[in-house]
Amino acid sequence: MRIANLRDRLVLVVDDRALDVESASGGLFSSDPQAIYPRWQEFGEWAASADISRAQDFDLADLRAPVPAPAQIFGIGLNYRDHAAEAGLDLPTSPPVFTKFVSSLTGPSGDIALPGLTVDWEVELVAVIGRPARNVPTSQGWEHIAGLTAGQDLSERTVQLEGPAPQFSLGKSFPGFGPTGPWIVTPEEFSNRDDIALSCGVNGESMQKGRTSDLIFSVPELVARLSAVLLLLPGDLIFTGTPAGVGGARNPKRFLTDGDELTTTIEGIGTMRHRLVAA
């Protein structure tokens, strides 16, 4: 199952066509894309037998952030071995966690303003919580995931790293710094939900390639680790980390500039395209 946010309305995406959920369900479910997660199991049961004959063609440019207003957004740092290596840091023994503020979220296409000269890319698989999770064992982690989507953890490195204490959450939360999309794909749609390819390019040049099988802390383990500390809520987002290839680790360093096209692709989900523009 794929669900999306089409001009602020919840839709099912079936064979490249969109079915308006509120209309198709006779008002059983609202048009609000965020409201579906507390009713995720009920929604899934309805969607499995929904009449898709009224699905219509749509413009990809009209897609917006599929989960537009999560209560919590978690970012995971250094969650790929090759990224920790390029950063010159030891492998973490527990997930480094920060937040991205909700106002940073944007959809899978469009312009993103550059607030500084050191804006970096970070392709990430994003997991969406579908059931409340507290003290969940790793073996049950996937049971609490509604679906997966593509994400970029854009980062203004100067702001992120300026001290005396790093400001990860601020440096990663400028407007537009949390692109997600193009839609949410439920876990059963993947041939192997623990081994998904992800990549990132700038102006057609490959910058990052990785597979989620290389995660230090897998999606279900992240659910377990986070839920051991706090309550994960339906609709929360977990940015699961980025593989090697970020601009700040290159020699010489390379950052996004006015006019760059950033592409973000995740196997089984799709591609996001954004143009970076001078603020």
Automatic annotation (TrEMBL):
Pfam families referenced in this protein's UniProt entry, alphabetically: FAA_hydrolase (PF01557)
Domain Fumarylacetoacetase-like C-terminal: 73-276
GO molecular function: hydrolase activity
Keyword Cell inner membrane: no
Protein's name in the database: Fumarylacetoacetate hydrolase family protein
InterPro entries, A to Z: FAH, Fumarylacetoacetase-like_C, Fumarylacetoacetase_C_sf
Family listed: Belongs to the FAH family.
Keyword hit for Hydrolase: yes
